[in-house]
Structure formats: C-alpha cells, structure tokens
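Continuing from the previous page of notes. For each protein in this section, the sequence appears first, followed by its structure tokens. Read the first protein now.
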Amino acid sequence: MNIREQAEEREFQYLSRYASHSRESKGRERVEEECDIRTVYQRDRDRIIHSKAFRRLKDKTQVFLAAQGDHYRTRLTHTLEVSQTARTIAKALELNEDLVEAIALGHDLGHTPFGHAGEAALNEICPEGFAHFKQSVRVVERLEKNGEGLNLTWEVRDGMLNHRTSGTPHTLEGQVVRLCDKISYIHHDMDDAQRAGIFQEDDIPITIRVTLGDSCKERLNTLIHDTIRNSYGKDKVEMTPEIAEAMRELRTLMFRSVYNNPVAKKEERKARTMLQEMYLYYSRHPEQMSREYQKLITEGENRERVVCDYISGMTDQYAMAKFKEIFIPSAWAVY
C-alpha cells in the first residue's frame, strides 16, 4: 500500500463508525487520479489554503469595519479559530479531522468586504440575491483557477454550504464546523468588543456566567467539553439542552449589544452605499471588471451574478480604492 492507502486504512481502524472515511467519499464532479500521499480531504484542504480567495480573507472585515488595531479579528483569523476549535472536537469524537479542517478553512471563502454589511448590500440590490455560504461554494466550484474551480469533494462542499445556523450538514464533520463557527464568533467577537470598549464582562447576565463561566476562556472550555461529552459515540453533534440554551442567550446578547450596536455599526451605512453604487456601475460597465470576470460573462454567466462575484471577492481596502477611483475626482496634476 502507498502512503495514502495506509492513511485510509488507519481511518477504518481508529475513527468512529459515524465518521466520514476518505475512501468512501462521494467524490468530485470531475474524476481525478488519486494522490499517492494525501487522502481526498487532505488534498481539498491544501487546495483551499493555496487559493486566492483564502488569502484575501486576511483583509476582510469580521465585525469592526477595516479595523486599524493590530489585534482585531479579520475574516481569516476567524476562519483559523473555527478550524482550531473544530479540529479539537473532531479529534476527541474520533471523526475525520482532515474533512473538518477543509470545511472550516473554506466555509467563509465567499464572504464580502465589510462583513455581513457587505453581504446585506449585495443581497438587497442583486435581483438574484446574495448569500455568503452559497458564494463560498461558487468560489470553489466556478471562480477559482480562472473559472475551473478547485474540484473539491462533495462532503467538503456540503459542509461549506450548510455551515449557517439553519443549515443541515450531511456529515458529522459538517455538523462540528457548523457548531464551532458559532462558538468561535461569539467569543472572539466578544473579545474584540471588549477591546473596542463597547462591551464589558459585567454586561453578561449572571445566569449565563453561572452556567458557562466567568471569562471567554472558561466559556469556551465549557462549550467544547459539553459538546464532546454529549456527542461521543452518537450520530449527531450537539450540546446538552442547558448549555445550548445558555449559548443561544449569549448569542442573542451579542446581537443586541455588539452586532447591532450603533457605535460599532456607524460606518456600515457608508459601506453598504458604496458597494451598491459599485454594483450599479459595474452592471453598466462590465468591461471595467478584471478580465477573468469578463470571461465569465462571455461564457454565458449572468451579468448580475458576475458583478456580485467581482465585488464580493474584493478586500475592504481594495473596495475602497476602487470606489475612490470610480467616483472620487482626482486633482489635476500638471503644473
């Protein structure tokens, strides 16, 4: 047996009977020759890490728009924290850690500049709507590699598509990522909000702190351990009702105190207006988009969808630079 086949055999020996085994993947849309070293999910993880969309996450907003502080999370650091938490739980539950990692690293590839404000802007103005979880799958199926896509396995794409709260992943590994996405953003966004001075530990009701803990570290520890204890050896990944309810209350508190906070969100109206004006401009002037996006239109892709592809792929700083280039007049430079 080669190295990949040995790894696949170890999966059958050591993973849970509910785990997704690499050898039993539903496969890719385009059949490929197997790698002699890496399993299919390891290859998917590597393709995501080396993609352009993944690199751009480092300059996309998580919560605080185009934050200048060195320690605020970006969409990339959020992704890495989801991956770390998900791998911890997957390993403890004897699930396929490689599949979990690939889903986690790819789950937000389709996110817009300026976080959910950008997503809402495109969803509002595009006749076909816009959702980042669908866009993440479109990125790996159609947009990467000059229109060829990454040709990922069905299980990874399913996990990416269903990572939202209302999603229904078809693998336990996808269920792990779906849960860890919420665990991660609630806690690291709370940490950022405390750094920004708009949220304090004392703002958390005592009932939640008694159940989950008195610090971000303690609460993360509680949620992770409860998920593992309550899910081990089962065909579903979930917390106990008491802990799950406390996390829902904490999430509701975050929406009320941070995500909808007028101080934290005061620049979002500008960001939404900016992206919508750019959408209208590129819809009228698709020749001003990058060549790879013009190519999609010539190949029969809907113009409005391609404009969303182009804008959603931008980083915060690039979007602001393009808006300035299009709409802000430059001073005459000849003396």
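Done with the first. The second protein uses the same format. Note its length before scrolling.
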Amino acid sequence: MTVLSQIFKLIPRNLIPKLANEFGIDRQSRVFSPTSHVLALVFGQLTHALGLNDICDTLRNHCGLVSKIRDCVPPSRNGLSHANRNRDAGMAEKLFWEVLAHLNEISPNFRIQGRRYCALPRRFKRMIHVVDSTTIQLIANCLDWAKHRRRKAAAKMHLRLDLRSFLPNFILVKTAGTHDSAEAPALCEGINEGEIVIFDKAYVDFKHLWRLFQRGVFWITRAKDNMKYDVVGQHSAPKLNILRDVVIKLTGQRTSVWYPETLRLIEAIVEIDGKPKRMTFITDNFTWAASSICDLYKARWAIEVFFKEIKQTLQLSDFIGYNENAVRWQIWTALLTYILLRFIAWQNEWKHTFTRLFTALRGVIWRCLDMGSVLRCCGTASDSVRMRGAPEQAYLPGFAQL
C-alpha cells in the first residue's frame, strides 16, 4: 500500500458512500464518485497542490496506484471543479466529525492523550476550552459572497479547542461579516457545568457571560477598555506582578441589566514577546489564585498555535474554487487531513513538529513503504536509525533494506 493509501485507510470504508447518499450526492456522481472526490481534495492538502490542474494531472499520472485506493479514479479538471461547486459541502463537514468520532472510538486515549499543550497549567484537572477565530483571506474581485469591506473578502473559522487533547470540539465556518461575539453562544453550547472556557475580549457579550454563569461554567476573558464598573470590594492583596485583585459590579446602562451579579477583576503585568505589558482580566470565579487566572489566559495562545499549524502547513492560503461551497469543501478537507495526520503522529509516538510530520509523509506519498517505519527514520542526528539520503534507501528496524 502506498503512504497515501495508508492515510486514506483511516477513513471508514463505507462512511463516504453513506454520507453521499444522505446528502443526495450519489445521484450526481456518475463516473467521479464521492470517494474519488474526497481523495482528490485530501491529496491536494497533502501535497500543497497549486490548483485544479496540479491535482488532476498528478492523479492521472499515478492512475494505477489511485485505482487501488477503493477503486478511485483521477478527476478531470471540469469534473473536480463541478463537484466542488455543486456537491453539498455539508457532507465534508459531517465527514470530519464522523471521522474524528471514529478515531476516538477505536483509540479512546487519542481524545485524552492525543497531545497536551506545553503551557497548559497542570494543576487544573477539569476540561479547559479555548474559543477564538481566524480569518482566511480570499480574493475580493472573485468572491462577492465573502465581501465584508469594500475591497476585502474573507471567510472566518470560529473554533472551540480542547486543551487536554489539542483537538477541536466545535467549528463554525462563515463569512467574516459577523462579529465574533454573535457566534459565542453557538461555540459554547456544549460546555458542561464545572468546565473552563477562555476567550479574548472580541467574544465579550455580557448576556452570554450571564448564561454561562447560570450554567455553572467558569469563564475568563479580558476586560474592554470602555467597560464601566464600580469596585465593591477587595478580593486579595496585590503581590508580585498582580497589581490589583478586586470585586466589581457593572454600572453601564445595559451591562448592569445583562449581568446583575458581581465579577472579579484582576490587573496584572504579563510578559509578551519578552516585554512587560499590563492586562486586565475578568472572570466569574472567586476561588482560584490571581496567578492561576493569568496562567489560564496565557494558555489561550494554544489556539493560535493550532491556527498556525492549519493555515501554514496545510493548503488554506490558495483556493482551487471561488464560490462559497468550494471554499467550504477545501476548509473542511484541510481539517480532516489535520486530524488524520494528528492520529498518525499519536499512533507512532511522534516527538517532532507537525510541519515535520507533514513534510516527511509528503515526500514518500506515492511510495509503498510502511508509514510507521518511515517516521521512525525521521529522527535527529543522534538517533540509532541512520538515513542514507532518502527513505527508500534506509535500513529500517525489523525490515530488510528497501
């Protein structure tokens, strides 16, 4: 089996035809099946394809190997473009969640121990969620549906990340025209009592924060500069980098009605890029130490690392389709490819970066090599396995020379 086939094998065999039937895509498929469609888009992500011609020509040049992957066929340029434009992208979204659920089912520890963010405070045993969004720049003169300014067009991906596993729990892909705070209720819908959610001040909506408080969810965010409040008490004395830790009550004409209870405000000096900066945090928790509140908000940077891995490693900078449906297909396929690679990294106890994993597999994607053995060859200079120039020229433990 080629490395591409081994990666694609992680998707259950009957899942794509089942979803295609559910979304009515089977009636549109003809020669270019939904399985071939998903394979073509996953291949485009794994190889950073430059466009439709790149995907179609490369798959056609390897049509013999492609046909061995669930009888898939190489697409024509028009066939792939038509599929991206007309096949419901809701299928790609559901495929992502179904595959993630399948991987968690066959390996429950993947959800628990898949990857732990290094800056996560170890003293917190409860689930910690981070909510944020990232903007995906598009071409304004080609994508009228995504225009949010006169000369700018963009899609926005809102995401809730589980810091325990570094895997997404909720994703919302929309145009960039709506404000982040409008999406906060949907993003936090599945958070349970006693869990923690962290977001920046773009998501501050006191109606939403009040609902979280009533559900027993602990939340942490930054205070807006124009927030009106009165200090009603001292929570703890200032110390070290904690300038003040006080109890406040909102006094704004609307905010005092939207959030009638008291809040905790912490003003601290935090280090950003090696420089001290004053930040003001608000939370509904009155139990934790002020330093713990600061450490939790610092862990919010994990979601920026996640966005960096998605946008800089996978193919989310160049789009192979212009309409909304095609863009949604590409975004959800990128996310699908990400979790497949993350599962491979977890299975093989990969200790290096996600980018290095991506490039290691991309270089041998058409080779009939054992994927785990290839990854074990990609160590540092001090590793016992020595590379001779290319993976197919290496001595692999337990294998003859390839």
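What the second structure shows: Strands lie at 128-138, 153-162, 167-175, 196-199, 218-222, 229-236, 242-250, 263-272, 275-283. The longest helix spans residues 324-347. We return to this in next week's lecture.
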